[in-house]
Structures are given as structure tokens and as C-alpha cells.
Amino acid sequence: MTDQRPDGRLPNPNGCRWCGADRHGHDQRWVPGVKWHGWEPPTSEQRKHRMLARRARRPDCGRGATDLLAS
Q: What is the distance between the alpha carbons of residues 17 and 29, in angstroms, rounded to a whole number?
């Protein structure tokens, strides 16, 4: 899950694998396709894509991070 949250923010790189929510206060959450779930750590690939997406959104960032996100 690298998509934006419903409020438009990107998930924390260490957010839940399924919904992107932070571990603190996650409890049980529901998302389509996964249904009710507890917090689970993101995969290494998810962490990478989340970090690159956040970097690409920074105003001082060059095109490099966006190019890396596509790979």
C-alpha cells in the first residue's frame, strides 16, 4: 500500500502494511480486500516506495526521486 490516505497524506514509511496507519493507536482497522486486521509491519519494498513518494512530494526535491519511484 503506497496510496494516499483518505485525508490526502502519504502513509508513514513504517506504517501498517495494509492501511498505512502508524502502529501507535492502530488497534483493529478495516480496509477493502483485507477486512479487519491488526497492525502488520510493511514490506521492505513498501518502505522504499513510501520513502521515495514522500521525497518526491517535497518542494526542494529534484526529478531523481520521482524517477526512482517508477523503477
A: 12
**Strand ranges inside the chain, DSSP E:** 29-31, 35-37
pLDDT tens digit at each of 71 positions of the chain: 446 666 678 889 999 999 999 999 899 999 999 999 999 999 999 999 999 999 998 887 555 555 555 55
Q: Is 2 exposed, middle or buried (0-12, 13-18, 19+ CB in 10 A)?
A: middle
d(CA 12, CA 38): 16
Specify the pTM.
0.69
Query: Which residues 6+ apart lie within 8 Å of 51 measured at CB?
Result: 13
